[in-house]
DNA sequence: TATTGTTATACTCTATAACTATA
DNA sequence: TATAGTTATAGAGTATAACAATA
């Protein structure tokens, strides 16, 4: 049985994955915008809140971001007074939350939790437990560069 | 129990959704690149192959793309000789595959099918059936503009 | 008045190449 | 020689505003 045009797309997991992801990202962006930060920045604050310190390039690997793109990001967070960047060796930078960053990280945590809760509750109970493991199986840690 | 930094992120469905989506998109892009087309363009060919005709703005609604962004897309497809654009009323344009577009759509179909198959096979069998319904629940048809 | 298509524009995200300086 | 960080740049993707033509 071939279908209406909606069904064509709604039966392609890859396509629906893209649409679902973009819908959720835009919802999260809306929740974060009062804090004046974007999603990547929120994620960085979250990581630093849990981990205290991480080198800039380790953070790149953790988040799947290219070093070249991390630089302006980290500079912006530093300019906002949210993180410090300290040299460990002569080539590595170590990122750490400031007082102000730590406070903001707390607010981020609340927003993310509520966002994740709302997300998971949209999925019917029978499917919920299967969702995260399925997604993790698609997560691809590819060595870039 | 709190965790290593990987687990922090891997336990956030929204974040994992983003990473999974971006991983799958880059895999698909790699498969499509020999055809010289991007994912949106592939999707448009697919829709037109199933539906023969669709107006440009209906296509926008179907794919969640803004009219302003569809224009250059459609023009490019037309310049490549893959679609025709014909006026229906004085303001609407109707998109339709050319012979050449139809041939390419066939190749796209093969690539997408194989991509979707590979995607779904990465998910362990117990979770597979739950994946698509969960994603569809997150798909958000928001009226833009 | 609402809709269709277009143009111009801007911001984010991502990617590559080239460079420096350190290990 | 490999790694860390930076700069410059280019390509997608997406968003808004303003406009003309048409329904």
Strand and helix layout:
Two copies of one chain form a homodimer.
Chain A: H1 5-10, H2 13-32, H3 39-51, E1 53-55, H4 56-63, H5 67-79, E2 83-87, E3 93-97, H6 99-122, H7 125-138
Antiparallel strand pairs in A: 1-3, 2-3
Helix pairs in contact in A: 2-6, 3-6
Chain A binds a DNA duplex (23 and 23 nucleotides) through helix 5.
The largest contact between protein chains, plus residue counts on each side, is: A-B, 57 and 57 residues
Would you identify the regions of chain A where 5 or more consecutive residues have pLDDT less than 50?
none
Could you give the order of the helices and strands of chain A? HHHEHHEEHH
**What's the helical proportion of residues of chain A?**
55-70%
Radius of gyration of chain A: 18 Å
Instruction: Indicate the mean pLDDT of chain A.
Output: 95
How are the strands of the largest sheet of chain A arranged?
A: 1-3-2
What is the beta-strand fraction of chain A?
5-15%
Distance between the termini of chain A: 45 Å
- Please give the count of helices of chain A: 7
